[in-house]
Amino acid sequence: MTAAEEEAPARGNGGGSEGTLELRDIVKTFEKPGQGQILVLDEVDLDVETGAFISLLGPSGCGKTTLMNVVSGLIEPDGGTMRRGGRDVSPDDLSLGYIFQEPRLLNWKTVAGNIEFALEARDVPEAEWDERIERYLEMVNLGDEGDNYPTRLSGGMKQRVAIARALATEPEIMLMDEPFSSLDEITARDLRQELLDIWNREEKTILFVTHDINEAVFLSDYIYMMNTDGEMFARRDIDIDRPRQYDDPDIAQREAELYTEFHEQVVD
């Protein structure tokens, strides 16, 4: 039985009607100087259910980002399939937005200019740019920063711009690769809550990479757990009512349970 089949599917929060994105038996190897072929993803299965918040959880170097990049099309797998609605699909068939660990803003462009750059790249009609920029900057509480430059923004504000930029292209699926890991914990907590508010309001599907168990439990509908051998060893549903609070004992208990499981699988 695969990790994707281990537990009953968690229900998403709405969204589109295309159905679950199903990755099966994904394999990826890389050539490493002096070591030959290194297996990074070992027949990995992943279900990305419409409208759900899904986390990929595991230690650094376990293949989480590689799997995310397979979904996005930045990396081509050596084997496996991607299907949706009963047919084979490629990343080009998907409506995706990608938010990286670092904001990757263009410092010589204004905040609004950074979003315009993404809209132009996605062939969004120019007549829609102003409305989208205003809407999504307001959504991340940066409505007055359109004419400012990234170099004048704090780390948290830069990441908010990156989120607004991705949202402005109006993707169905948001890919987020440890977007809060370089922020202080107070700012990260604020942004996690803002992200959940946006997710709930906009009915996006989010695939989120993290090595932080507490973060994964707080955010997710369900979590896929990876080990250092490139294997997906479990899927775990997070059946905690929303909205969630950081001091909820249920979150602490679920975090402790997952930590114990990780310790058995990864450390031992």
From TrEMBL:
Keywords: ATP-binding, Nucleotide-binding, Transport. Coiled coil: none annotated. Signal peptide: none annotated. PROSITE patterns: ABC_TRANSPORTER_1, ABC_TRANSPORTER_2. Transmembrane segments: none annotated. Pfam families: ABC_tran. Residues 1-20 are annotated as: Disordered. It comes from the Archaea. GO terms for molecular function: ATP binding; ATP hydrolysis activity. SUPFAM superfamilies: P-loop containing nucleoside triphosphate hydrolases. CDD domains: ABC_NrtD_SsuB_transporters. Residues 21-254 form the ABC transporter domain. InterPro entries: AAA+_ATPase, ABC_transporter-like_ATP-bd, ABC_transporter-like_CS, ABC_transporter_ATP-bind, P-loop_NTPase. This is NitT/TauT family transport system ATP-binding protein.
